[in-house]
Design brief:
One of its GO terms (molecular function) is oxidoreductase activity. One of its GO terms (biological process) is bile acid metabolic process. By secondary structure, the chain is an alpha/beta fold. The protein contains nine helices and seven strands. The chain has a seven-stranded parallel β-sheet, sandwiched between helices.
Length: about 260
Amino acid sequence: MINYNDKVVIITGGGSGLGRAAALSIAQQGGKLVLVDMNQNGLEDTKKQILAAAPEAQVELVEANVTNEEEVKNYVQFTIDKFGKIDGFFNNAGIEGKQNLTEDFGSDEFEKVVSVNLNGVFYGMKHVLKVMKEQGYGSIVNTASVGGIRGVGNQSGYAASKHGVVGLTRNSGIEYGQFGVSINAIAPGAIMTPMVEGSLKQMAGDNWEAAGKEFVSVNPMKRFGKPEEVGNLVAFLLSDAAKFINATVIPIDGGQSYKY
């Protein structure tokens, strides 16, 4: 078990999926959490699950839109006002967007996906890094995707934004390592989250479950990943045990990105 006693971690997209899984893992290891999401009901559900698993956990909730820089500044300042520091930041909020060929991909849709997945990550890093640089320590994990390592058909906005997250992670890791801050990204593959379920439903409608089985049949491990598997990786990367890992993108995809 990694020791998160007295550690303070912000998680965006904490109302479901990978954010919820990471929150559960970190809380059970003693971490104090500030969970950020636009979905207040999702945040409340995450908190209930955390307190059921770790009744002594300290969990604060902030409803915010990561595409609004002022709201990003506010959740960072809230954390400082409440806890006085930020040890870790899981910069995770993201959307998939609609699926379409590049020529048919709506400009507004493209901008929406990039605004959440890339601009939101940038704003979070910008304001958390100011705190961590002054502290002289901290760890950040950004959520990229296998779609940020190689292409993803019919998802121009998603692939472009996640490639951007990869570049931002590597660049900032090089900049801030000297200040005691490690910055890495995870690149999940097919993890069974609400976003992946939604993607399958876009592709296959009522046949999405069959489509999912066919989709993972090409994966070397022949299954979907579990959110908790990603959550445990995030908990490790944000911990003191991973301090010398920096400016790196780590796939968690059952080997899929290396097969092609």
